[in-house]
From TrEMBL:
SUPFAM superfamilies in the record: Metalloproteases ('zincins'), catalytic domain
Gene Ontology biological-process entries: protein processing
Residue intervals of the Peptidase M13 C-terminal domain: 299-482
GO molecular function, one term: metalloendopeptidase activity
PANTHER family tied to this protein: PEPTIDASE M13 C-TERMINAL DOMAIN-CONTAINING PROTEIN, ZINC METALLOPROTEASE FAMILY M13 NEPRILYSIN-RELATED
GO cellular component, one term: plasma membrane
Signal sequence, start to end: 1-16
Key words, A-Z: Signal
The protein, known as: Peptidase_M13 domain-containing protein
Originating organism: Caenorhabditis japonica
């Protein structure tokens, strides 16, 4: 009876599933040894790639996400390049209205504002003489023939506003999707993780010899404490909604003046854009994103919707900490690993850099598949991986205490093991690991996924979790643990 009650509550949300219960059995090769090649134990060659992202996509309730903002979509559609044909439509509109004996005062004044550039009005729409000709066809033709010369300039002058409109609509819809998927609580929980990790790293910084010896404790603390996740999505949503609504009302009001004639759409679109002054606070920076990705855009950090989705639909905290928790640690760590690519700090320890790269070099040597490289461009990401795991693991230890080795019965693994399994799943690929390139063929900062995950061998928690012997491949590739911050961090005296 009791069992049934619990089950019915869990299922009442309509989503009777748990991310890791669903994904771990799909990929893990239970007959391989985790201490030999942990990544390939969890994600064998040929297994499904991006299992977490796929699970998120298959579970996202499309019906709920159905947009409630069709009118904004129409504005965005026009902004995306549906604005060709202004001259044809405006000429047609004029002719029709003229023939019906309707007033065209508004049409002429809108045309006039459209052809003002840098405070000067250019062309036949600047004066009133067209209005004095009563031949509807003749004037309609002049509009059709004259306006095309201005269309390029009309667009060019409003490029920035168009971009704002598109981004506002995009950002609004993205946040709305978070609301539709009921992720409010998960966002708050993720932010609580950010806060917990900041507290942990704060204590570490205070005890860091190289930071003390170089007088950068205060500035380093300042950098990490100002790294924030913007959780007030209602505020952002309202700001964008209000702006889009204003533009939409301008647009509708303009169309009304022309009896909602579709030939007025493009004209009214430009007119409504002209009337709006954008507040750009939430326009250029994405605080919310739908992809399986997270970003440190110092001082802001943000996490794609899938990470919140995982928080919402994962029962065991150890699995949340290994996945979303590891990514939270990773993004926060970007602030704390300073290099030429990402110089958030005023000083960073060279010994710490050497330690990080040494581990990745060793992991590369042991586990290289298609290709592997360790260069300066990889330092940020490699460092953020190492420190990010450490932070997430610290939170795990704090919450589980001596329950770390208890069995998580649904999967018959310990909580400690579950943490590592869920971490591997964040970058699970069924194909061979290879050096990643950017679109312009330059080196991407992320190491191959198998290297990123197997570098975790250096964390003492891994050896403990899987009882690895010293001559296993994972332990052979583990270098001395990098204490980037904390009392055991390098001394790095000022020279
Ligand atoms: C699972 O691991 C065993 C032992 O290492 C290996 O023989 C087998 O090929 C692996 N299966 C897959 C699907 O990779
Ligand atoms: C690892 O370090 C050695 C010695 O510095 C170097 O020769 C090698 O190219 C490095 N490996 C990688 C994958 O960068
Ligand atoms: C659970 O795992 C342990 C140790 O890995 C194993 O000895 C045991 O047989 C497993 N139990 C079940 C029910 O599979």
């Amino acid at each position: 009876m009791r069992f049934w009650l619990i089950l019915s509550v869990f299922c009442s949300s309509g989503l009777c599933f748990d991310f890791f219960l669903e994904t771990i059995p799909k990929t893990v090769n239970w007959s391989s040894d985790p201490c030999e090649d942990f990544y390939r134990h969890v994600c064998p060659i040929g297994s499904v790639s991006d299992p977490l992202a796929k699970a998120v996509n298959s579970r996202r309730n499309a019906k709920q996400a159905a947009s409630k903002i069709d009118h904004f979509k129409y504005l965005a559609h026009l902004a995306y390049g549906g604005t060709n044909g202004l001259a044809q439509r405006a000429g047609q509109l004029y002719e029709k209205r003229c023939e019906q004996g309707l007033d065209n005062q508004n049409l002429f004044s809108i045309l006039k504002t459209l052809v003002v550039f840098d405070g000067h009005c250019y062309g036949v729409f600047c004066t009133d003489h067209l209005k004095l000709d009563t031949d509807c066809k003749r004037v309609g033709k002049i509009i059709r023939n004259t306006l095309p010369a201005f269309e390029g300039d009309i667009q060019k002058k409003r490029v920035e506003k168009l971009e704002c409109l598109v981004l506002a609509a995009h950002n609004y819809m993205t946040i709305q999707e978070h609301v539709d998927q009921e992720l409010e609580e998960a966002i708050m929980e993720t932010n609580a993780l950010v806060g917990e990790m900041k507290e942990i790293v704060k204590e570490m910084i205070l005890a860091t010899p190289w930071a003390a010896n170089n007088n950068v404790i205060k500035s380093t603390l300042g950098a990490v404490l100002s790294t924030n996740l913007e959780v007030d999505f209602e505020k952002i949503k309202k700001n964008l909604f209000d702006q889009l609504t204003k533009i939409h009302l301008n647009y509708e009001e303009c169309r009304n003046q022309f009896n909602n004639d579709n030939d007025a759409n493009i004209l009214c679109f430009w007119n409504s854009i002209d009337k709006h002054e954008f507040d750009k606070t939430y326009i250029y920076f994405e605080h919310y994103d739908l992809s399986f990705n997270a970003v440190n855009s110092f001082p802001n950090i943000y996490f794609g919707l899938p990470f919140y989705f995982i928080v919402k639909h994962t029962e065991e905290l150890a699995a949340v900490l290994g996945s979303t928790g590891y990514i939270v640690g990773h993004e926060l760590s970007h602030t704390l690993i300073s290099s030429d690519n990402f110089p958030a700090l005023t000083y960073f320890s060279q010994s710490a850099i050497d330690c990080i790269q040494k581990q990745f070099n060793s992991t590369c040597t042991e586990f290289k598949e298609e290709s592997c490289l360790v260069q300066d461009v990889h330092l940020d990401e490699n460092g953020a991986d190492i420190l990010g795991f450490q932070l997430a693991y610290s939170v795990l230890e704090k919450h589980y205490g001596n329950r770390l080795k208890d069995t998580y019965t649904p999967l018959n693994v310990t909580h400690q093991q579950l943490f590592f399994y869920s971490a591997a799943l964040t970058s699970c690929e069924g194909k061979k690991g290879e050096v990643l390139l950017n679109r312009d063929r330059s080196l991407n900062g992320h190491s191959p996924s198998n290297i990123r995950i197997n570098s975790i061998a250096q964390h003492p928690g891994f050896k403990e979790a899987f009882q690895c012997s010293d001559n296993s491949r994972m332990m052979q590739s583990a270098t001395e643990q990098c204490h980037i911050y904390g009392k055991d961090a390098p001394v790095s005296r000022r020279r």
